[in-house]
Write a structure and sequence with these properties.
The complex is a heterodimer of chains A (131) and B (153). Chain A is an alpha+beta fold. Chain A is built from three helices and seven strands, in the order αββαβββαββ. Chain B has a two-stranded parallel sheet. In chain B, helix 4 packs antiparallel against helix 5 and helix 4 packs parallel to helix 6. Chain B is rod-shaped and about 90 Å long. The N and C termini of chain B lie far apart (76 Å).
């Protein structure tokens, strides 16, 4: 092997090693809806990036002049089960404000469709939203 | 040719009657669908009434911090704790009408969502909470095919 060839082989090997080292743990969390347990969960990125045009999950915040902001969470799974809840709870509102495009969220509601919990996980395992 | 015997005649008659009965059932309008829709509507109303009577006065409604509760609301908005205005009552009726109409056709569209959102603006906070409670209870009962492609309103 000539000096030049050895140099190119060395560069190629270094580049490949670098590529392998950048891999990390990844999770896939499509939207799951349980109407009996009154829970819904899913990753915003995975929901958007799936091939189907059905599933989505998210929360919206609306402020009406003269009253507390309202947070409303909603989700639809691949079986077209659509669920949602609303609340004016300030703690749930603060949690909803931490949602971003990479978030994995879980929300629950009671028999009166009031949101009872909202969990937001922002971690490297979550897929980012693609165009 | 000898006439058919009595048992065979009876069987023929029975078979014809049964066929006619089944054909009539097939062609009859499906009353079950209407009953299911009405049941879903009644359940939503019942859930709302239960919420009013059973839940504590401030369930699902935050007691505002004193600083927020004492702030002066905008003049055009319905203020908290006052008698509902005719405008807010009309908004409540519109919200209920939208949900009832959607239950009739078992479908909630983007246009319904926009109209509902507009009605919510004119309601008092208590009315808004009740309207959302009734709306989401109806949604969660899977009585509607939600076609907004995202947020319900």
């Amino acid at each position: 092997m000539t000096k030049h060839t050895a140099k190119f082989v060395g560069i190629a090997i270094s580049a490949l090693i670098g590529t392998v080292a950048w891999a990390g743990a990844k999770n896939t969390n499509t939207v799951l809806v349980n109407t009996v347990a009154r829970t819904a969960s899913g990753s915003l990125g995975d929901a958007r990036n799936t091939a189907d045009t059905q599933q989505f999950i998210g929360c919206g915040i609306t402020t009406y002049v003269g009253s507390a902001p309202t947070v409303a969470c909603f989700a639809m799974d691949t079986s077209s089960n659509y669920v949602g809840c609303s609340s004016t709870n300030a703690d749930l509102l603060a949690t909803a404000q931490s949602i971003n495009g990479d978030s994995y969220i879980t929300f629950t509601w009671d028999a009166f469709s009031g949101c009872t919990s909202l969990s937001v996980t922002n971690a490297s395992l979550g897929a980012p939203k693609q165009p | 040719m000898p006439p058919p015997s009595k048992p065979i005649l009876a069987l023929l008659l029975l078979g014809t009657s049964a066929t006619a009965f089944l054909a009539g059932r097939q062609s009859a309008p499906d009353a079950n669908e209407r009953v299911l829709q009405e049941l879903a509507s009644q359940r939503a109303v019942l859930d709302t009434l239960l919420a009013r009577t059973a839940a504590p006065p401030d369930a699902h409604r935050d007691v505002e911090p004193p600083s927020k509760a004492s702030s002066t609301p905008a003049p055009s908005a319905p203020s908290m704790g006052t008698e509902p205005s005719p405008r807010s009552l009309a908004a409540v009726q519109e919200g209920q009408r939208l949900i009832d109409a959607a239950l009739q056709v078992r479908r909630w569209t983007k246009e319904d969502g926009q109209a509902f959102r507009a009605a919510l603006v004119d309601m008092t906070p208590d009315q808004r909470g009740e309207a959302m409670r009734r709306f989401f209870t109806t949604i969660n009962s899977q009585a509607l095919d939600v076609r907004t492609g995202g947020a319900p309103f």
